[in-house]
Design a protein that fits this description.
Number of helices: 2
Protein name: Right-handed parallel beta-helix repeat-containing protein
Radius of gyration: 28 Å
Number of domains: 2
Largest sheet: 8 strands, parallel, barrel
InterPro entries: Pectin_lyase_fold/virulence
Shape: elongated
Structural class: mainly beta
Distance between the termini: 52 Å
């Protein structure tokens, strides 16, 4: 039963059983202190001109007799963005509300936002008056100014900034040029996709502590931890993208780089259902990437292409209820789903970490005959328990591999702290040549002459 049906049913029952909110009951006004399920009702972030989910507040009558609550009302009255439903009846002011002995009363709370206020923290109060006292229950919500893109919309050129969030419903296609400024927020409804079209340009100009955030349109904190809340960002053939300081969280596939070019740096891609990055015959240069938790692979490369990744952390501790895939850190192939092959002209990984839990080896090399398969792993930490399949300490094109646990701080979904403990075997073991090309870590700390393997010094 959904919440609206439940409210309607409750309203009918109240009318039959109590004739709710009338002023002709024989019950005496309550004199004891009412008890409340909470002192504050915090409503999820709401966009301008949209409604929130419904939240529940319970009121308890501690007395041994049926009573009425003399008055319940909102401080802001009819002008409030908050709506309340008391025992099945909507309104802003209620008098002589019956409440049975040793029983509870349900109040449903939601926000129906209008124009976003200058101060996005919006509050009101539910006031309860009894014969002997009064009580205020605080109502809080964050009303965010946002542009809501309709389903299957198309834009040519746009510059998104921190002053207005973007909400994507369905598929939004960019045909020419999209630039996103630091601190911007892009929210996706269930199943939504941002598509950078053929030959289009995509630029994400985030900064440390002002990352551009791509995530679910649902704002409860838990939705930063749950995968598959939206579909993906897809970079179509011949598009050109540059991403710096972004957070991509909770999609099916964080980035699908499809026969296109991408420069990506200082970016976290975590808690995505299938892939963090899926690259199909793409050209990618990346460094200071922090990736974790994907059911199939954190980084999947198929149908060849050209790739360089340095000082990046490819972890995979995916253990969600939908965990049925291999959860590789890296899947590397020169074949596509149609069994066609294309040359893997370059796949270079330097000073990177590849570590997972579900499979014995974090890396799967899927080489098919008929096309080139060129790769080089130079000075990396690699989970490699099954040496009969691949031995990264002796195999060609694997140089200075370390197979010890990197000792991350906290790999859980809600944390994704992939910085390293002081005793980590990655500390000071990076190759200096790579560190000199990328002298600062994700946090802007200099790597110096004793660089640490991975994204964090």
């Amino acid at each position: 039963m959904n919440i609206k049906t439940f409210i309607a049913t409750l309203g009918i029952a109240s009318l039959i059983g109590f004739q709710s909110c009338r002023d002709d009951f024989d019950y005496d006004p309550i004199s004891s202190e009412l008890r409340y399920s909470k002192d504050t009702v915090s409503v999820d972030t709401v966009y301008n001109f949209s409604k929130s989910e419904t939240y529940l507040l319970k009121i308890y009558n501690p007395e041994n007799d049926d009573r009425v609550i003399p008055k319940i009302y909102l401080t802001r009255g009819d002008k409030s963005y908050f709506n309340i439903n008391v025992d099945g009846k909507a309104g802003t002011t209620f008098e002589n509300v019956p409440i049975r002995k040793k029983d509870s009363l349900f109040i449903f709370v939601e926000v129906n936002a209008k124009e976003a206020p200058l101060n996005p923290l919006y509050d009101d109060e539910i006031n309860f008056e009894t014969t002997n006292s009064s009580k205020k229950i605080k109502l809080l919500s964050w009303i965010e100014k946002a542009k809501i893109h309709p389903k299957d919309a198309t834009i040519s050129t746009a510059n998104w900034n921190v002053n207005e969030a973007q909400v994507i419903d369905g598929n939004l296609t960019v045909t020419n040029d999209l630039t996103i400024d630091k601190g911007s927020k892009i929210y996706f409804k269930k199943g939504a996709t941002l598509t950078i079209g053929n030959n289009a340009k995509f630029t994400v100009n985030g900064a440390l502590n002002e990352e551009v955030k791509f995530r679910s349109a649902r704002h409860d904190n838990k939705y930063d931890s749950i995968p598959d809340q939206w579909n993906k960002i897809e970079l179509l053939p011949n598009s050109t993208s540059k991403i710096n300081y972004a957070k991509i969280i909770g999609a099916d596939t964080g980035l699908h780089v499809n026969n296109s070019k991408l420069n990506i740096s200082n970016t976290k891609i975590v808690n995505n259902q299938s892939y963090g990055i899926l690259a199909t015959n793409a050209t990618i240069i990346g460094y200071n990437l922090v990736m974790n938790n994907s059911n199939l692979a954190t980084l999947a490369i198929e149908y060849g292409g050209s790739y360089e990744f340095y000082h990046s952390t490819f972890a995979n501790y995916f253990n969600f209820s939908t965990a049925v895939g291999p959860a590789y850190s890296l899947f590397l192939s020169n074949e596509n789903n149609d069994k066609n092959v294309s040359a893997l002209t370059k796949a270079t990984f330097g000073n990177c970490i590849f570590y997972n839990e579900r499979t014995p080896n974090a890396i799967l090399l899927d080489k098919k005959d008929g096309a080139a398969f060129n790769y080089l792993f130079d000075t990396n930490i690699i989970h490699n328990a099954d040496t009969s399949t691949l031995n990264v300490t002796t195999a060609p094109n694997f140089l200075a591999s370390i197979t010890l646990d990197p000792m991350f701080e906290n790999t859980n979904y809600y944390a994704n702290k992939l910085s390293l403990k002081n005793e980590s075997p990655a500390k000071g073991k990076g190759k200096l040549d790579f560190a000199q090309q990328f002298p600062f870590d994700y946090n802007g700390q200099p790597r110096g002459t004793t660089p640490t393997i991975g994204a964090f010094q």
